[in-house]
Amino acid sequence: MKRVYLDNAATTPISPEVVNVMLPLLQNEFGNPSSSHSYGRQVKAIIETSRRTIASKLNCLPAEIIFTSGGTEADNMAIYTSIETLGVKRIISSEIEHHAVGHTIEHLKETFGIKLEYVALDEKGNVNLSDLENRLKSDEKTLVSLMHANNEIGTLLPIQDVSEICKRNNALFHCDTVQTVGHLPLDLKELDIDFITCAAHKLHGPKGVGFLYINKKNRAHAFIQGGSQERGLRGGTENIYGIAGMAKAIELACDDMEEHKNHVQGLKTYMIDQLTSIFEDMKFHGEIDPDKSLYTVLNCCFPKSENQGLLLFSLDLKGVACSGGSACTSGANLGSHVLKGINADMSRPNARFSFSRYTTKEDVDFAIDQLKAIYKI
Ligand SMILES: Cc1ncc(COP(=O)(O)O)c(C=O)c1O
Known about the structure:
There is one protein chain. This protein has 2 domains: 4-12 and 256-374, Alpha-Beta Complex (Aspartate Aminotransferase, domain 1), CATH 3.90.1150.10; 16-255, Type I PLP-dependent aspartate aminotransferase-like (Major domain) (Aspartate Aminotransferase, domain 2, 3-Layer(aba) Sandwich), CATH 3.40.640. Residues 329-333 have low confidence and may be disordered. The longest helix has 22 residues, at 257-278. It is of the alpha/beta class. It is globular. The protein starts with a strand and ends with a helix. β3 (90-93), α4 (99-112) and β4 form a beta-alpha-beta unit. α1 packs antiparallel against α7, α2 (38-58) runs parallel beside α7 and α8 packs parallel to α11. Helices cover 38% and strands 12% of the residues. Pyridoxal-5'-phosphate binds at residues 70-72, 75, 98, 100, 147, 151, 176, 178-179, 199, 210, 326, 328.
């Protein structure tokens, strides 16, 4: 059966170039990077070269990159570090963050009594910047944690503006950039941000590896206690294959970003145009304006139908892989906290289609044909 994959915000296929980097390492390099003999030193060199590659693509110092097991750990590390080490007493975030942030800050509120406030959003998920600035007019040491691009609806944060607001008001800024590293330019010397995060599998790298960027002006203590890996901040033998694969994935994504962006934005615009002409009263959740929306994500709000509860299931049966929202909660069937957070019309069926540089126009046409068949158009 023909199948198309339109769920790239959940995860992306690993690219052949990344596999080519990882395979020989898996076959030949087994040393422990903490060992002082040649086997260890060889592997340690791979880790440090990877760190330099990533730092050069993001314009930061290699020492500001801490390798983690992925986006969730990196988000946790940023938030815990700001509380345990940097004196944060209050967090300002939004109700539409990924659970890696949302559940972490709720836990910190319940367990440690950290104050938690949510910034006002509009119906497309845009942050109200005046509300943010007003909330920051207090002497309490505050962390602002807002994501760069929402993984369910694609709405982008004006990251430079938020960074300036935080700086003006002496607040720390953590930006969950898991959906944007390698997809949008990030110059960390230009942007004054305290923490950003990455998961390699969102940009054609391997799963189970990511990083946290910590601005050098912030001192941090161990997040995972153990050995002295990652400058003592994260104990545990490093995932060298993952780290080398991630560096290659970031290099490829950053070097060809403009080309990939034009290709993927073209597909997204095409899908919007097709759906709008096929369905009466077609709507989309979140921003779709290319300047305000991540080009890889399109959250569709379809007209009501008899079997609307089965839309995703029907698409899957017809070979179209997409999702209702975040993959992390799709098994829990609790309804999307993001759509609730922007007061979206939940009486209509929705589906998130997300694209990558490997997606083709034929894939989009196939998905549209299956939607037409389901809606009997
Ligand atoms: C915005 C965002 N943050 C964090 C994560 C968590 O990343 P990981 O599953 O690699 O830990 C994801 C993954 O879906 C994400 O989309």
